[in-house]
Write a structure and sequence with these properties.
The chain has 575 residues and is α/β, with parallel strands linked by helices. It has 23 helices and 16 strands.
Length: 575
């Protein structure tokens, strides 16, 4: 009997393939005494040789997929393995202390890590500590006869199974081979889920126990539309899944016919359907799905995909590529949103109890630590502005004072560039992301000073409901259609319109098929979503009557008591 698990449907699509376990092995070991120290030294040499071979393969793959610069980190790891000082000390420890290779390796590398981490005035040496940690883990795995998973090396059709996926794990997934992924934890708005949608990989998150239930190479059937995973499916179940996949492909083909159509409701009112992207490579998906703009360019991936702070020129090239690629259509670029679950190995951020409520995004940019990074990013954006229709958006704004401080830096850098004779566009709009309830409540004040407001519902909902969106135990409180959330959204949209400004939404709610009729009724101007949701949303909008949707939204905001009331209202109005 096939085992069935239910999770949160995070990215549409259906897949059947064998499991690839992206789970870190247990690398604990016992310190033991040895008499044959030569044999122990040989075990170390073998593990070093295996690790080197593996790293060379990873480096070559990284060169092809990520580029020469990103691959250099693996060259550094290979050099650590060949360092005669390090290897010599480990062998000396084996011989002198007559201990097993594992404990000698750990003892010596711990010492080096401690020395390098202590060099606070030398960031280069501190980075070497991270390299040694990484390499030690790999050598230890080989000594213990275990293998470290590596998503970049997958070369056959698989379904990735993990406790969770980091943004860098997800970025390494090759859609040609990775047919879906399933995780223990996470929600529909976790970063891995958002990236799965942009990669067009079916995904189910928050199953709680997939890593306990599945072993490597077991067959899995994944339904990312309904959130179902079947372990060891029967022949009949596999046939059903293939049939469902064909039906989904046929539905997608219908939506594809709307690629070049204008987004309009049944009564002819136009709304802008834009896409959220992480890198210039995502443009293919945006244009292929008929995107009318970029409503959110998450620039932090430029920082996360780089071994060090990206230079002004690196950033300029990336922004220019996106602006040119969109050929005059609006591009909203969010300044770096580092912090929370997005860490940089080369930026030493303090450890925090609640990083999502802590030192992140604009709070870093406006601090002494982030000032240079922020000015570099603003200069790169200003230089790129002449190549398209640029809009700059500041994230995690809580107060007007923060917005004014960020705008002041924007104006200072603009004046400096112009004084240097650099051409800068005069039509750049500067706005904010509304994701903190405090900012939503005084949206009428912000609307007087910003050019636009874009609602980031992923965070706005979790902060309003006091429910971590990554925690599947409280995922029931992630309620986009709760009347409290709808009232905040209405206030933001009304405040923008009163001052003649536009209001957008770049959270996942913008592409949610239950939320869209409500947002149309509330008068949202721009809907920005995963590119794969655009055509489905355009199809839905073409069947909506604006006046009826206004009536629906009014009832949802004033008469509904609960999320369930709102869902029932949408069902009644949208047949």
């Amino acid at each position: 009997m096939a085992d069935k698990l239910k999770g949160i449907a995070a990215s549409d699509g259906i897949a059947v393939a064998k499991a690839y376990m992206l789970v870190q092995p247990d690398l604990s070991f016992q310190k033991t005494s040895v008499t044959d120290t030569q044999a122990e030294a040989q075990r170390l040499d073998d593990a070093l040789a295996e690790s080197t071979k593996e790293l060379q393969m990873i480096r070559d793959k990284a060169k092809q997929t990520l580029g020469e610069e990103e691959a250099q980190v693996f060259d550094a790891h290979i050099m650590v393995l060949a360092d005669p000082e390090l290897v010599g000390q480990i062998k000396d420890s084996i011989k002198t202390n007559q201990v097993n290779a594992e404990s000698a390796l750990k003892e010596v590398t711990d010492m080096f890590i401690s020395i390098f981490e202590g060099m606070e005035d030398n960031p280069y040496m501190q980075e070497r500590a991270a390299d040694i940690k990484d390499v030690t883990k790999r050598v230890l795995a080989h000594l213990l006869g275990k293998s470290l998973p590596n998503p970049a090396m997958i070369n056959e059709e698989v379904i990735v199974v993990a406790h969770d996926l980091t943004p860098s794990d997800t970025a390494q997934l090759d859609g040609k081979y990775v047919k879906a992924f399933v995780t223990d934890i996470g929600g529909r708005t976790s970063h891995s889920a958002i990236m799965a949608r942009s990669l067009e990989i079916p995904a189910i998150v928050g199953t709680k126990e997939i890593t306990q239930k599945v072993s490597a190479n077991q067959m899995l059937a994944v339904d990312g539309i309904h959130g179902d995973v079947i372990i060891d499916p029967t022949a009949d179940e596999i046939a059903e899944f293939h049939q469902a996949a064909s039906a989904y492909a046929a539905q997608k083909a219908e939506w594809d016919k709307l690629k070049n159509a204008k987004t309009a409701t049944k009564d002819g009112k136009h709304f802008e359907l834009a896409a959220n992207i992480g890198t210039p490579k995502d443009l293919t998906g945006v244009l292929g799905n008929g995107g009318e703009g970029i409503g959110l360019y998450r620039t932090e991936f430029l920082y996360m995909d780089s071994p060090d702070f990206p230079t002004e020129d690196d950033q300029f090239k990336a922004y220019k590529a996106v602006l040119e690629g969109m050929a005059g259509k609006p591009v909203v670029v969010r300044t770096m949103d580092i912090g929370g679950d997005k860490e940089l190995p080369y930026l030493q951020l303090p450890k925090e109890m609640n990083p999502f409520l802590g030192y992140r995004a604009l709070r870093i940019s406006l601090s002494e630590l982030g000032d240079g990074m922020f000015r570099t990013q603003i200069r790169a954006l200003l230089r790129a502005s002449v190549f398209g229709n640029l809009r700059i958006m500041f994230p995690m704004v809580a107060t007007l004072v923060e917005f004014r401080a960020a705008k002041k830096i924007f104006l200072e850098e603009k004046a400096k560039l112009q004084a240097e004779g650099v051409e800068v566009s005069e039509t750049i709009q500067v706005g904010i992301m509304i994701e903190i309830p405090a900012a939503a409540v005084i949206a009428d004040k912000f609307a007087k000073e910003v050019d636009f407001m874009s609602i980031g519902t992923n965070d706005l909902i979790q902060y309003t409901m006091a429910a971590d969106r990554m925690n599947e135990r409280v995922s029931y409180l992630y309620q986009p259609y709760n009347p409290s959330i709808l009232r905040l959204i209405k206030h933001v949209i009304d405040s923008a319109h009163k001052e003649g400004k536009w209001a957008g939404m770049c959270g996942e709610m913008a592409g949610d098929q239950t939320a869209v009729p409500l947002l149309v009724g509330l008068g949202l101007d721009e809907f920005s979503m995963s590119a794969t949701s655009i055509l489905k949303t355009r199809s839905l909008m073409s069947r909506l009557d604006t006046n009826l949707m206004k009536e629906l939204a009014e009832k949802a905001v004033t008469e509904a008591d609960t999320l369930e009331d709102v869902v029932a209202l949408v069902s009644e109005y949208v047949k």
